[in-house]
């Protein structure tokens, strides 16, 4: 069945969140190949029927896990970014807060990696359509345009730079999963210095 998110009660939302969390934990611990609905239900402490009530099959649940992780990341990052007052400071805040979220949520990010790289939808095709991730770069495109208008940033293609930033961030979680000894705080500072140098307008 699966229930439309806008029609859910508080209790139903809490149950969905519980199941999504159990799915992420199961995937991170056991791998995507072992993450059956029955195993996820057992971890969540509910029946498989309850999972099926809240999600329209495994494809829907896997998609909701990925979306939940990204939404939680955005919720954690937004107040940090909004507290910055200039485009350059907001770019630095974006980088630091994104890497901090990755560092604080290794299990959730591992689940996303497993789903994106190893999950095959039951009906074939892709879990996410090409271009679904474009919205993730939209904030950066807007930020770069704002900074170019006020003179903070040099002239460059905002879309190219936005995807370059996202590419640099997206490699962190899988690399950290393989090398947990990496100092992600220092990693974030390297990215801040790198993209500040790449974007700022030199004073004449």
Features:
single chain, 204 residues, mainly alpha, Tetracycline Repressor, domain 2
Description:
With 204 residues, this protein is mainly α. The chain has a single domain, classed as Tetracycline Repressor, domain 2 (Orthogonal Bundle). Helix content is 72%, strand content 0%. It has 10 helices and no strands. The chain has helices spanning 10-30, 37-44, 48-54, 58-83, 87-104, 106-118, 134-150, 158-170, 172-178, 184-199. Helix 1 (10-30) packs across helix 2 (37-44), helix 1 (10-30) packs across helix 6 and helix 4 (58-83) packs across helix 5 (87-104). The mean pLDDT is 91.
Q: What class would the helix/strand composition place it in?
A: mainly alpha
Mean pLDDT: 91
What's the end-to-end separation, in Å?
A: 62 Å
CATH class category label? Mainly Alpha
Order of helices and strands: HHHHHHHHHH
Helix coverage percent: over 70%
Assess the beta-strand content as a share of residues: under 5%
List the helices and strands and how they pair.
Elements: H1 10-30, H2 37-44, H3 48-54, H4 58-83, H5 87-104, H6 106-118, H7 134-150, H8 158-170, H9 172-178, H10 184-199
Helix pairs in contact: 1-2, 1-4, 1-6, 4-5, 4-6, 5-7, 5-10, 6-9, 7-8
